[in-house]
User: Fold these one by one.
Assistant:
Number 1:
Amino acid sequence: MKEYSNKCYEKNKKKNKPTLTIKLDESLKKIKKYLKEKGENHPKGLKNIALNIPSPIIELLKISNGPELNPEVIILSDKELPDFNVEIEYSLKDNDLFSNTSNYLFHFSKSINGDFYSINLNPNSSEYNYIFRFSHEELAPIEKWKNLAEFLNDISNGYYD
């Protein structure tokens, strides 16, 4: 019996398994709960929709407009986002790192140490909707998630705790 179980286990290990997927609304619920459990005062959610902000980021800002999820992830408010994007763009250009790909990045969050998070909005890219964490030193991606939902799920599950 034990031999049969081991054989089945090994056979099952070799099968391709679907990757875990999580929907944005599920992650937003988890973030809402996460913010509530932290018990800190977070800014109220966004009421008026800013047209120049990508829709997944707007959904997050509706929960809290500029929350600090932890020192490693500080979501910027709708008022801070335009200036922050210009600032990052200048940094990339000053360091000769601005490229065609950079045109499609929307920077929405930063960490206490200066790293920043961006979403890829290029529909022709194989990494469309990916979230990238950029190092503030090299101005290059050091981590990535497949989408905002996956990123928020990791944060709410204590990824940086």
Number 2:
Amino acid sequence: MSNLKWRVSAHTLRRVNERFGIEVKSATNWVNQLMERANYVCNGIGEDGNPSRVFTVDKKIFHADIINDVIITVYEAEIKRPIAPAVALTLAKEIRKMEIDLLKREQLAIERRSPIESEIITMRLSLVRAKKESRINFFTKRIAELETQLRYINAELTSWKRDLTLFAESYASIM
């Protein structure tokens, strides 16, 4: 007895081979491995007009029989023409929200950095004037701690900017 959850139609076996280069004898296992991680999207209708359950994983779309656990077709996910403008509009709005949020975060970062940078300057002045080794060590250690705080703040901003850039690049790919 097989421990595979999903059965695979003959049509799907051919499509897996044609579209993804997987040998027919390996296709059922390939489908089941992907379906273990797949996300249910909705109940839809296939190109043949029959109702199906729609799943997605790794930029692939799987249609399953509405009642039975049979995969009836699989293909690469793509943004279809009629929906591309709606996706682009939604993404553009999200980019604007992210951009506003980023600017607010940059403003907060400046407010957080300013006293740290001021203290670093004060510590550097004190370090230059220090004569005792214990004082030199204290100022050097404190400067290093403050510079670490600055690096952390800057790394957060860089991460947020990267996220915004990824959204913008995705938007560009749709247009």
